[in-house]
Write a structure and sequence with these properties.
The complex is a heterodimer of chains A (267) and B (300).
Chain A lengths: L3 H7 L8 E10 L2 E11 L4 E5 L6 H8 L7 E6 L2 E2 L2 E4 L2 E4 L2 H7 L3 E4 L11 H13 L3 H14 L15 H13 L5 E5 L7 H16 L3 E5 L3 H7 L2 E6 L2 E6 L1 H6 L4 H10 L1
Parallel strand pairs in A: 3-10, 3-11, 8-9, 9-10
Antiparallel strand pairs in A: 1-2, 1-4, 4-5, 6-7, 11-12
Chain B lengths: L1 H8 L1 H4 L9 H23 L5 H8 L2 H32 L4 H16 L2 H9 L1 H4 L2 E5 L5 E6 H4 L2 H26 L3 H9 L4 H31 L11 H12 L2 H35 L14
Antiparallel strand pairs in B: 1-2
Helix pairs in contact in B: 4-14, 5-6, 5-10, 5-12, 5-13, 6-10, 7-10, 10-12, 11-12, 12-14, 13-14
The chains are: A alpha/beta (267), B mainly alpha (300).
The structure holds adenosine-5'-diphosphate and magnesium ion.
Chain lengths: 267, 300
């Protein structure tokens, strides 16, 4: 735990943090997976989470939109406590409905795409706006068409997921998440399930998003992306943040021996 | 070596005719079958007691057709009850609430663990121990009361017996279907802000349907035949109707043939529908563009 606490306090006072995680703990049975994670992400920041397999990166990401509940500490997204309501010095657990409502601000992209196989690309993108937000179909269709064009799939609205390549599926998944107009996007190894020649097309879409000012937390093994696009890289190992800082620092001059050994393996 | 190779590739050998493998067993089987069919036909034609004229006469008789209609109604309504309640039970069984899980598991255990015949009789005779059904404050004043026998008619007793029993089987089928849906689908739905009910309706159940529909079609076919058990409560569906007729004229076999013909017609229709649905479903799983390949024989 060298530098993350300094970045927590480096945020300007006026600007609310997009994500603020304080002392987050999580265990599965006896296995303590997160051992006190502190992380603050400012609006518009792109942060990549690096670390060896099993270090708790996915679990932490899933805690941010409450796909996992946490056992200690707290997380706020855009000023709202995740999973709880604070009142009178106590935290009250939210109802499933309220949790669902809170998740609208957070988009998530999964390693294995998880597109809805019974719906076309366009229907996948329209699904949440229509059924969660109650947007009119014609309007949702227009937005979805625009989003598919934005991820370079203007010609594939009627294709079912099984008819698309991995890279195309992942781009539809990104469009589907964007359709809810999230303030924050979480990516869990979005290119790890892809053939090498398809990685670039997904990273290009993500770079475009970053350039447009989207706040992003990206778990990735693509060091080129982390170095080029991210404002900050956070290195996790064994359920703690070992080192964090601008990519230029962490990649060229890693402080912690575990960071050094990890980087020497992946670069 | 060289000569052998030359021989096998010589054009003269390439044109030699092929002698197909002979299947003497097939011929023996065909002869045996032909003899059996001939014996059966001769039995039908030379046994006047069979009264084929009665079979033809009763096939479209008014009360038989009314019984047939009742059989179809029973099948449809009991299956609707079974599918709806079975889905609810399956969702309860998979819920986080331990009480709901226990209730659903107990239901399935009770209704699968007792004979359906007993269940039918149970609903029919409920009026003898519970003469009135009333609505009111538990252990308090009654707001509304009706006689059990007026509410639970023969038809209602048959629906309760068949439908509630079916729900127990459908619960297992739906549960297997829901279990076949990838966990990532639920996470994706939740991450998009879908609540539990919407996730079931829009994401889980449509995908589970692929697994649920084929065995459900089987259940419809067995339900069609199970409705004949309504005989024990005297509901005039197809089997009861023919029984009432042969009770008067003692022509049991001709009338049972009448009933069998109608059951066979209905199960055949259902089997054709089932095959269609399964073909459509498997096409969905492959998710390839709907493209029919036409095979042509003889180059045409
Ligand atoms: N649902 C779960 N139940 C039990 N253990 C889990 C579960 N999810 C993750 N874990 C465990 O938590 C640890 C961290 O997993 P994960 O967050 O997926 O790591 P990473 O994404 O960094 O590879 C692993 O040891 C994994 O086995
Ligand atoms: Mg992971």
């Amino acid at each position: 735990m060298t530098s993350p606490s300094t970045t927590t306090h480096a945020a300007p006072v006026m600007e609310p943090l997009m994500v603020e995680a304080v002392g987050v703990r999580k265990h599965f049975g006896d296995n303590e997976v997160l051992k006190g994670i502190d992380l603050a992400v400012r609006p518009g920041e792109v942060v990549s989470l690096l670390g060896p397999s099993g270090s708790g990166k996915s679990t932490f990401l899933r805690c941010i939109n409450h796909l996992e509940s946490i056992d200690g500490g707290e997380i706020s997204v855009n000023g709202h406590l995740v999973g709880y309501r604070r009142a009178g010095g106590k935290k009250y657990e939210l109802k499933p409905r309220e949790i669902a409502t809170a998740r609208r601000d957070v988009g998530m992209v999964f390693q294995r795409f998880n597109l809805f196989p019974h719906l076309t690309a366009l229907e996948n993108v329209m699904e949440a706006p229509v059924f969660v937000k109650g947007v009119a179909r014609t309007e949702a269709r227009q937005t979805a068409t625009d989003l598919l064009a934005r991820v370079g799939l203007a010609d594939k609205p009627a294709a079912y997921p099984a008819q698309l390549s991995g890279g195309q599926q992942q781009r539809v998944a990104i469009a589907r998440a964007l359709a809810m107009q999230p303030r924050l996007m979480l990516f869990d190894e979005p290119t790890s399930a892809l053939d090498p020649e398809l990685v670039g097309e997904v990273l290009d879409v993500m770079k475009g998003l970053a350039a447009d000012g989207m706040t992003m937390i990206v778990v990735t093994h693509e060091m080129g992306f982390a170095r080029e696009v991210c404002d900050r890289v956070v290195f996790m190992d064994g359920g703690v943040i070992v080192e964090a800082g601008p990519p230029s620092d962490v990649f060229t001059n890693p402080q912690h021996p575990r960071t050094r050994s990890f980087l020497s393996k992946v670069i | 070596m060289a000569t052998t190779v030359e021989q096998t590739t010589a054009p003269a050998h390439a044109d030699e005719p092929i002698v197909p493998l002979r299947h003497p067993g097939r011929w023996v089987a065909a002869v045996v079958l032909a003899v059996l069919v001939a014996m059966f036909v001769s039995f039908l034609l030379t046994t006047p007691q069979l009264r084929l004229d009665l079979v033809v006469g009763y096939l479209f008789e008014r009360s038989v057709l009314r019984g047939l209609l009742t059989t179809i109604e029973l099948t449809v309504v009991a299956m609707l009850v079974g599918v709806a309640l079975g889905t609810v039970l399956a969702i309860m069984r998979l819920s986080d609430n331990p009480l709901l899980r226990i209730v659903a598991a107990t239901y399935v255990a009770v209704f699968r663990g007792t004979p359906i015949l007993v269940q039918l009789l149970f609903w029919f005779f409920l009026g003898t121990v519970l003469p009135n059904i009333s609505l009111g404050v538990p252990f308090g004043p009654e707001l509304f009361s009706v006689s059990t026998n007026t509410v639970i008619s023969q038809f209602a007793a048959a629906i309760l017996g068949l439908g509630l029993n079916e729900a127990a089987y459908m619960a297992e089928i739906v549960r297997a279907g829901i279990g076949s849906v990838d966990r990532g689908q639920v996470e994706a739905a939740h991450a998009l802000g879908m609540g539990p009910a919407l996730t079931y309706r829009r994401v889980i159940l449509p995908q589970a349907a692929r697994v649920i529909v084929p065995p459900t079609a089987n259940e419809v076919i067995s339900m069609l035949k199970l409705t004949s058990l309504a005989l024990v409560i005297g509901l005039p569906e197809l089997t009861t109707t023919v029984q009432l007729i042969y009770g008067r004229n003692f022509q049991q076999i001709p009338l049972l043939i009448v009933a069998s013909i109608w059951y066979l017609v209905l199960t055949t229709v259902l089997t054709v529908i089932q095959a269609r649905i399964e073909r459509r479903m498997s096409r969905g799983v492959l998710s390839s563009p709907v493209r029919r390949t036409r095979f042509s024989f003889g180059g045409r």
